Every structure is written in structure tokens, then in C-alpha cells.
Amino acid sequence: MGFFTKDIKTMDDLFVHTLRDIYYAENKIAKALPEMIEKASDAKLKQGFKAHLGETENHISRLQEVFRMHGAEIEAIECPAIDGIIEESEEVAGEVDDKAVLDAALIAAAQAVEHYEITRYGSLVAWAKQLGRPDCASVLQKTLDEEKATDKKLTMLAENAVNMRAAV
Ligand SMILES: [Fe+2]
Ligand SMILES: [Fe+2]
Question: How far apart, in whole angstroms, are the C-alpha atoms of residue 57 and residue 43?
């Protein structure tokens, strides 16, 4: 972003800027998930992370599709928010020895990531509709629905199993 000029002038600019922000974030998440899969002990949690890695790769493809549909260059711009969430979760995970407690920490970290994605996709869907791009909105909505479903699954896993074991 320019220091002397303001590069985001219109809602369309803001839409494209945010697409590039979440494009960076999704790529970062795809790189972080294999380590989370490796660290998870609970079989369902491991499987859940694996499934979401597959979905995340799909989210990246969908974003590329939206860039193309909207005639914008496919580009990632640094997203300090996702960098911070991932950095903090790695720090916390590094402090935990107990496997069940580590699973609980991994779930909390993954939910922070999902909530970040939900806010971004929520805004993008609303803005796409406002900009007269229901076609882009419906592609982004598919991803938003998957992020919300993942968040719910993580809550169920935490409440049903992982937290209970960690508390023993
Ligand atoms: Fe995603
Ligand atoms: Fe996600």
C-alpha cells in the first residue's frame, strides 16, 4: 500500500484488497495445517485437520476463480492478522507437553483461524452482492459455509472429547 497515496479508493478496490488478504491467509493456513495434523493425537481431530486441509486447497482454487471472474490479478498481500494468530498458536503449542492438553490448544488455535476466515468471507460475500457480483458472492459463500461447518465440528470435538480428557 502506498505511503503517500491512498490505494484503496472504492468499494471495488476494498473488495480486491480483501480478496488478496484472504488469499495470503489461506495459503499460510495450507502451510500450517500439516504441522497441526502431525501434532494432533486425537484420531478424530487429526482426521478433521486432514479434511480441512483438502478444503483449504479448494478455498485457494475458489479465490483464484473469483479473481478471474472479477478480472483482478491473482495476488497475495501480507496479512499480519493471520501471521499473528499462527505465530501465537505455535508458541503456545511449543509450551505444552501433555498430549490431551496439546489437542485442546490446537483446537483453540484452529478456531481462532476459522473465526478470522469467517469474518473475512462474511465481508467479501456482502461486498460482492453490493458490487453487483452475485456470481462471485455465491462462490465465496461456499467457502464461508465450509469455514462455519469446520468451526462447529471443532466445538463439538472440544466439548465431547478433547477437553474432557485434558481436564483429567
Ligand atoms: Fe479457508
Ligand atoms: Fe478454514
Answer: 22
